[in-house]
């Protein structure tokens, strides 16, 4: 955050000051929407949530070191009062960005955004000061909060951009206009909100490349026809990546070790170099290539890029997060979110990791699948059966039961169990898991299976 006085911030966002003793007091630290994460010298943005209203935590934020609260009403402590806190936070972020001028990289896609963002950040950090989206803070609040973490030393600003409906990316790129835009893929996530099919999802995701300047770069996945179809929607230069031999950034000689980690030869316009990822699953190759394409567009050579990818580690929790218990049980926590694409990738990665070991899948619902939900859950059940998982615990009523039924009918060798809720699933898993097993836990985040994964990963008493 560039230092700004309360009075300066008020002028930028159109706020009135309430209970402020000194309008010249500076804000010197990043902003937060969680009162527990306020940094001394920062600004607390009071936003209404599904369960709590940030205005109720204004005093706690000030006690925690916030200089003032960005609020929609007076709160009895120093506050900048605006009509709309979200819009004001966006205006402040845009103002700060205009005064800093880092290279802004926006990335979007149906799956893989957070892992790709984490890989890219670790490549760029070795080259120059980099600020990247924390966890998956990729929406209308998370993006400006990320921008407000940048300062005068920041050279690269890596912004994960989520879109649940048309117009979302237009809004986000209005706050932080990118010079480089990366589109990973087009899948089923949020499809019902965007019009119901992949073409509608592609239309929404393509808003990112439409926002790019003529001297910018659009990084497009050569293996996804919907993504490559966006080439005609941008003024920017196109750089393609993927497994295709026609891709400008591509992987050759892809292989997997006995821990399901992939290695390959990275090929870019500047040459080729070996890469060995410390992440499980063959799908990580595409994520790594996406990060490499961005770094290539920014001018890094192939050796620098490969060095960053080789040194990169998993950063965000709940995404193929591996915990080894003392009794030899391996718990793979992939419960941050779920879609058919990520469920398929996770199941295959875990089977590759397990080898000959016994495998247990604890799976809950995949959200936002609309009318196709039951059929897609049944498809996942058949995949569990085809991959020969030993045990399936389906968590929840409705669609997870379709998953269980499909698995049982496709392969009677799979021991199928149903649990009404997370607590029941944990009891089942605790009873069924044996020393040496590999346990895969996945569902959409609202199901709460992350807590089960963490409990299961704890050493047995």
From TrEMBL:
It is an enzyme of class 6 (ligase). ATP binds at residues 109-115. It comes from Sphaerisporangium krabiense. SUPFAM superfamilies: MurD-like peptide ligases, catalytic domain, MurD-like peptide ligases, peptide-binding domain, MurE/MurF N-terminal domain. It comes from the Bacteria. Pathway: Cell wall biogenesis; peptidoglycan biosynthesis. Residues 33-76 form the Mur ligase N-terminal catalytic domain. Its main location: cytoplasm. The gene is murF. Its EC number is 6.3.2.10. Involved in cell wall formation. Catalyzes the final step in the synthesis of UDP-N-acetylmuramoyl-pentapeptide, the precursor of murein. It catalyses: D-alanyl-D-alanine + UDP-N-acetyl-alpha-D-muramoyl-L-alanyl-gamma-D-glutamyl-meso-2,6-diaminopimelate + ATP = UDP-N-acetyl-alpha-D-muramoyl-L-alanyl-gamma-D-glutamyl-meso-2,6-diaminopimeloyl-D-alanyl-D-alanine + ADP + phosphate + H(+). This is UDP-N-acetylmuramoyl-tripeptide--D-alanyl-D-alanine ligase. PANTHER family: UDP-N-ACETYLMURAMOYL-TRIPEPTIDE--D-ALANYL-D-ALANINE LIGASE (PTHR43024).
């Amino acid at each position: 955050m560039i230092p700004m006085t309360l009075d300066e911030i008020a002028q930028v966002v159109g706020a009135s000051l309430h209970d402020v003793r000194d309008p010249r007091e500076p804000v010197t630290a990043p902003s937060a929407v969680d009162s527990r994460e306020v940094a001394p010298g920062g600004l607390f943005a009071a936003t209404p949530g599904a369960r709590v209203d940030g205005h109720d935590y204004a005093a706690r934020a000030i006690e925690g070191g916030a200089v003032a609260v960005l609020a929609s009403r007076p709160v009895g402590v120093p506050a900048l009062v605006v009509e709309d806190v979200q819009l004001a936070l966006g205006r402040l972020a845009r103002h700060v960005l205009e005064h800093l001028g880092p290279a802004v990289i926006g990335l979007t896609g149906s799956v893989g955004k957070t892992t790709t963002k984490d890989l890219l950040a670790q490549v760029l950090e070795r080259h120059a000061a980099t600020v990247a989206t924390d966890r998956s803070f990729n929406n209308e609040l998370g993006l400006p909060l990320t921008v407000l973490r940048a300062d005068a030393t920041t050279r690269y600003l890596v912004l994960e951009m989520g879109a649940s409906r048309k117009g979302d990316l237009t809004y986000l790129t209005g706050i932080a206009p990118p010079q480089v835009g990366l589109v990973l893929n087009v899948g089923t996530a949020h499809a019902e909100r965007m019009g119901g099919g992949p073409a509608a999802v592609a239309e929404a995701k393509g808003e990112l490349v439409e926002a790019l300047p003529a001297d910018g770069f659009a990084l497009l996945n050569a293996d996804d026809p919907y993504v490559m179809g966006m080439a005609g929607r941008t003024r920017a230069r196109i750089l393609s990546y993927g497994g295709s031999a026609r891709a400008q950034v591509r992987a050759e000689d892809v292989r997997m070790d006995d821990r399901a980690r992939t290695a390959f030869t990275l090929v870019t316009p500047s040459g080729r170099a070996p890469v060995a990822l410390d992440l499980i699953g063959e799908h990580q190759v595409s994520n790594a290539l996406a990060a490499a394409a961005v770094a290539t567009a920014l001018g890094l050579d192939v050796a620098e890029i490969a060095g960053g990818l080789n040194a990169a580690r998993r950063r965000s929790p709940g995404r193929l997060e591996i915990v080894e218990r003392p009794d030899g049980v391996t718990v793979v926590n992939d419960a941050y979110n779920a879609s058919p694409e990520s469920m398929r990738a996770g199941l295959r990665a875990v089977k590759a990791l397990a080898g000959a070991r016994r495998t247990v899948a604890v799976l809950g619902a995949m959200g936002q699948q609309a009318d196709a939900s039951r059929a897609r859950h049944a498809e996942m059940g058949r995949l569990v059966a085809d991959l020969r998982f030993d045990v399936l615990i389906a968590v929840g009523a409705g669609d997870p039961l379709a998953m269980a039924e499909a698995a049982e009918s496709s392969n009677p060798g799979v021991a199928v169990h149903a649990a009404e809720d997370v607590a029941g699933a944990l009891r089942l898993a605790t009873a069924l898991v044996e020393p040496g097993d590999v346990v895969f836990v996945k569902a959409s985040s609202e199901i709460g299976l992350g807590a089960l994964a963490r409990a299961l990963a704890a050493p047995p008493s």
